[in-house]
Design goal:
Layout lengths: L2 H35 L2 H31 L4 H33 L6 H27 L2 H31 L4 H30 L3
Helix pairs in contact: 1-2, 1-3, 1-4, 2-3, 3-6, 4-5, 4-6, 5-6
């Protein structure tokens, strides 16, 4: 296979990876709206997007494996691209968990304190910023955008630590009920995992020889 074809193949793969990022962004937005507006329909829509990402991951990994076997494509480059795709799917797995928690919240009518809702909303918005920026970074290969994603991960973990302390106080005082507490912690933990995998995807992307 010629280098020109390889370049075209990689360009197509990068376009599909960017598409995966945009889909992850869409899921975060739908989950956030589903949580805030108590709408299962939005979660169901997010699930369809999630399924598309998982299908895309399988197709891309298979494609890259075949290309690596049948061409002179750099093996290390292929592994790096696969790692980026893998982290995007892992981020989606975190969102799959959030969908389940939001469904429980809506179906069982679980109530959150105003403070709890405000905190989760904030972390959702911060996560949305990370995912959007990661997609833009892959599209532009902009180091400043990459740094924003990495710095944002550190910032979000600090925010979550502070929120966790406040959450424990609410739980002790009875402001937060055990059922809502479990959902709160699971949603927050899953959002942090989403950001973590977007950060790892960024680091692997920019360390590779594209």
């Amino acid at each position: 296979m010629s280098s020109i074809n390889l370049d075209n193949d990689l360009k197509s793969v990068f376009e599909r990876i960017r598409g995966m990022c945009f889909k992850v962004e869409s899921i975060v937005s739908l989950c956030m709206d589903g949580f805030m507006k108590h709408k299962i329909q939005l979660v169901d829509e997010a699930k369809k997007v999630s399924q598309a990402i998982h299908e895309e991951e399988n197709e891309l990994i298979s494609l890259l494996s075949n290309k690596a076997e049948k061409s002179n494509m750099d093996g290390e480059l292929v592994k790096s691209i696969m790692a980026v795709i893998g982290h995007l799917e892992m981020a989606t797995n975190g969102l799959d968990a959030i969908m389940q928690h939001v469904k429980i919240k809506v179906n069982e009518g679980v109530l959150f304190s105003d403070k709890g809702v405000s905190e989760i909303s904030h972390i959702f918005r911060e996560t949305l910023d990370v995912v959007k920026t990661a997609g833009d970074a892959i599209m532009t290969k902009n180091e400043v955008l990459k740094k924003h994603v990495i710095d944002k991960y550190t910032s979000i973990t600090q925010i979550v630590d502070a929120y966790s302390d406040e959450h424990e106080v609410r739980l002790i005082k009875g402001v937060c009920q055990p059922k809502s507490s479990s959902l709160y912690l699971n949603i927050v933990d899953s959002l942090v995992k989403v950001v973590w995998h977007m950060k790892l995807a960024m680091e692997r992307f920019f360390l590779s020889r594209w």
